[in-house]
Amino acid sequence: MTKKTDPFAIDLTPELIVRAYQAGIFPMAENADDPALHWVEPPMRGIIPLDRLRISRSLAKVIRSDKYTVVANRDFVKDNQDLVKRFMLAATQSIEAAVKDPKGAAQSILNANPKGGKIETLTQGFELTIPLYKDPSGKANRPFNVTDANMKETVDVMVEFGGLEAKAKDEIKTYYTNEFLPK
Question: For 22-44, what is the mean pLDDT?
């Protein structure tokens, strides 16, 4: 008996991931042990203009309340280094494509989901958020690169608003790595 293959199976190439991100969708498994992936299309997306973000006292109180948690699974990253590298390559290429053509990236979202918003709003969203992916020091040309100074600022804010304990300021290197980013 021959094993049937899935007629709908496709290879997740960086090009496909870039096109998917441009369309506002991404692949995800149900859990870390599930080899099957499905496409996720979030019904709502938002843009937070961080250059104008002000944390109100009430929001700071909610952040400090421990109702919300950020979780990273180091074992998954360690056990799936090639997958993480391929994912970061695809994410990097998608940001680079949006940098070159923000309106084209916005149109891709609308092509995949005609109710995804207005072209002008989506284009403006890309133009406002793209700088957030860049190294503010200007040393790295590709998105997602983080320096100790970048991470120190981030950790300081998270300590200030209750996301991390004060000792995190002495452990900055445990919160990031550029190891899986494309060169």
Answer: 74
